[in-house]
Design a protein that fits this description.
120 residues, alpha+beta, Alpha-Beta Plaits, 4-stranded mixed β-sheet, two-stranded antiparallel ribbon, elongated, Asp23, Asp23/Gls24 family envelope stress response protein
Length: 120
């Protein structure tokens, strides 16, 4: 099994596929400015904060007891309570993984790495 693949529930899944499913789900959550370093908002963040993750580091995935364990790094818009935002991201990601990939999720850790302020 390659380092870039996960073996869970009897199938091999590319970590890139998992990252894509997770990123798309997380980006749809109100309050999420970006996932890792994948878009314009995070490029602007990196200009102003010198912090940006490579796309392959934005979502980390591993297998634990035949279930996926996920870590998602996001930038959040100012004004969204962090605990609710993290819960919403977890719910969206878990639903997407269950529906699209068809495997159970053991845990989803959400890291809010940057904060984006609205223009005034």
């Amino acid at each position: 099994m390659a380092e870039s693949e996960l073996y869970v529930s009897g199938i091999g899944i590319s970590k890139n596929v998992v990252s894509t499913v997770v990123s798309l789900a997380a980006r749809r959550v109100a309050g999420v400015a970006s996932v890792g370093g994948n878009d314009i908002a995070s490029s602007l963040i990196s200009v102003f904060t010198s912090r940006s993750l490579a796309p392959e580091q934005a979502v980390e995935s591993s297998v634990e007891d035949d279930r996926l364990k996920l870590v998602v790094h996001i930038a959040a818009f100012y004004g969204y309570p962090f605990t609710k935002l993290a819960a919403d991201v977890r719910e969206a990601v878990a639903d997407a993984v269950t529906e699209q990939i068809g495997v159970e999720v053991a845990a989803i850790d959400v890291y809010i790495d940057s904060l984006v302020f609205p223009k005034e």
